[in-house]
Amino acid sequence: MYLIEPIRNGEWVYDQGTTMAIQAYVRDNIFLDDKIIFPYMVNPSVQIGLNQNAYEEVNQPYMDEHNIGLVRRETGGGAVYLDDKNMSFCYLVPNDGDTNIFGQYDKLYAPIIRVLEKMGVEGLEQKGRNDLTLNDKKISGAAMTIVHDRVYAGYSLLLDPDYEVMNTVLKPNQKKISSHGVKSVRQRVGTLRDALDPEYQDISVWKFTEFILKELLEVDDLDDAKRYVLTDEDWQAIDEIANNMYNNWDWTYGHFETFDYQVQQRFDGVGTLHIGLTITHARIEAIQINGDFFGVKPKAELEDKLIGTKLEASALREALADTTVDEYISGLDAEDLIRFILAIPSQESEE
Fold this sequence. Notes:
The protein is of the alpha+beta class. It contains 12 helices and 16 strands. Pathway: Protein modification; protein lipoylation via exogenous pathway; protein N(6)-(lipoyl)lysine from lipoate: step 1/2; Protein modification; protein lipoylation via exogenous pathway; protein N(6)-(lipoyl)lysine from lipoate: step 2/2.
């Protein structure tokens, strides 16, 4: 098995979009005489499945506030939070003979289970559709598809999960961290560190990954591993993929075709405001503003200004740059309206 690492000019690449682009480039262009493994660890980010609507899966206001990225992968499955405390692994495996693992998550997990058991972990089991559990708590979720007659698969391993961030970021429009919610996540999500033998209890994520890779690659030293080192030409193509796809707003947010979106709230000094939107490829196709508010200009004018606008703060600000929102909704300014549409908590608003 070949090892391909996300290392450029001697530095590990943490950008989630570039990491996905590396995998896509190798998947479609690099064909070697053996299986391939990619370890990857990224800046705090959420990775959503191919068929998921970003607006329904993540707490975007919280992500914006805490600089947490979002990327859409090309395989199905659910949303997962990734950060620089936990390592993930991706594989390219020929889809034939004994190596055929497509749809068989027990086979995908079997090698890593053997490695973790060598580190003292007991109680590992593949459960449900695609989860790896530790004493019935989830410590990994996997996804896979077939491309160019190879199985493209991957999973993350929770060595040090951040329960608080996981609980908050994967709950759309949640306005505050709930201690009950954090406890709930702790009940459902496990940690590998607590299950390791004493000699590994203080292991770093890098040493943890090194141990795993040496076992999977069957080498005593990673310097002896078979490697494919990405060339300058490879990186040029990878950058293009990242820019055109994984780091592209339209792919991440606009991929989902059409959905309806509604927000309602009472504002002090304004009244009750209800906005219903139809979102197509993450842009406002239709919008209707209702409520018991006052205004001196017809709300239809304000609605027309927002048609075709991306459902993101900067685009909404640009659309309203020359508009006095207070003329349409008395007591409300443009920033209040934008925060309301995007369900960003406002201290002035009433629940």
